[in-house]
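A note from the maintainers: we've had questions about how concatenated examples are separated. There is no special marker in the raw files; a new sequence line simply starts the next protein. For clarity in this README we add a label.
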Amino acid sequence: MTAPGTFIRVVDLETTGSRPPAHAVCEIGWQDVVLGDDGIWQIGGADGAHLVNPGRLIPPVTQAVHHIIDEDVADAPYWPDIAPTVLRSDAVALAAHRASFEQRYCTPALSGNASWICTWKCALRLWPGSPSFSNQVLRYWRKPEGLDRDRGLPVHRAFPDAYVTAHHLRDMLRTTPVETLLEWSALPGLLPRVPAGPLRGTAWTLVDAEALTRFANDRDEDVRYSAQFEQRRRTGEPEAAMAASPDQSELF
C-alpha cells in the first residue's frame, strides 16, 4: 500500500454526454503517480477501471466515441456507489487532463473535497511549444519515457487515457512542485497563442495593443485571461499580480 501523502491519483471519465444532470458517467479509470523513496515521481501504485451504470441510455453518437454500449453497463454499479471508492483516498490530489470536465461529475461530496491538478492547464505553461495540448497530441509530441503504447490504447477509454495523462503528470512533477501545479490549475488556462480567428496561432507577444484589448474582453475565460496576462506583462506588473485571476467585470 502506498503511504499517505506520497501519490496523486489521475482519473479519467467516459460519459453519456458533456454535462450533468442530463448526462452521467459510464466508466472511470485511474492511474497513480507515486513519489519514490529517492524523491522522484514515477508511475506506480493503484490503477484500474470500472464500468458505471449511468441510469440512462447511452446516445449512439457517444457510443461511437468510446464504444461503451448499454449492454456493457447494465449490471455495473451506479456512480454514487462506485465514485467514492476511487476518488476518496490518501492522495495529495486528484488530477485529470482538462480537469474541469471531470469535476462536473466528481463533486466535492464524492471526492471528499479533494484538490485537483489540471494537466492541460499545466502543459500550457510548461510545454508552450506543443502544436496542440490534447492528451494524445502531447503523447506523440513529447513521447514520454516508459509509456507502453498498447497499454495506452484504445483512446477514449477511461484507463488508457488516465494512463497517458499520468505520464504527463509524472514529467511535470519532476520539474515543478505540486503546489505550483495546484496554483496554475486553479487559474484560467494561460494560452501561449491566439486559439482562433484571423490571428490564430499568433503568440500573444506579437498581438498589437488594439487586438489585445478586444481579446481581453472575450467571452472565453482562457482567452480573456491570457490577453490580460500579456497586457499586464507589457506594463511591467509583478509576476504575482499577473498570476492573479482576471477581473470578471472586464467581460463586458
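[label: protein 2]
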Amino acid sequence: MAQAAMFDYFYNNGGSQFLIAESMSQNAPLFNDTLLKKLHHSNLDVGAYSSSGDDAIRSITRFLLYHPVNEFEPFFESLGLKPSEFSGLVPCDKMVLNEDAFLLENYHVFWNYGIGREKMGKIFF
C-alpha cells in the first residue's frame, strides 16, 4: 500500500515522470519504512482499512500532501545508495526533483545510454 501511495504522490501530485515515480516508490524500502513509522506515530492506522487498501492509499496520499517529503531521498535510494551515502547529495534548498533540471538531465542521459539505476547511484556518489 505504501508503494502505491508513494507512486500516486510522486506521479499524480508531484509531477514526476512515470518511470522515475515508479522507481522511487518500488526501490526505496528504507524511505517507505520511515514513512510508515511516521504514519503510525500520527495515529493513521493503515491496517484498519478495507482489504482492497484503496482507503489506506488515499489516506497515505493525503498525509503526504500535508506533510511533504524531500523527493531527493527516495530518488537517491532508488539508485542504490544508502542514506549515509546520499546525505551530502540532498540539496537543502529544494524538495521536488523537478527543481533540479541538471540532475534529471544527467539521469536521462545515463538511462538512454543503457546504464542501470544501481550503477547510476555509484556514478552520482
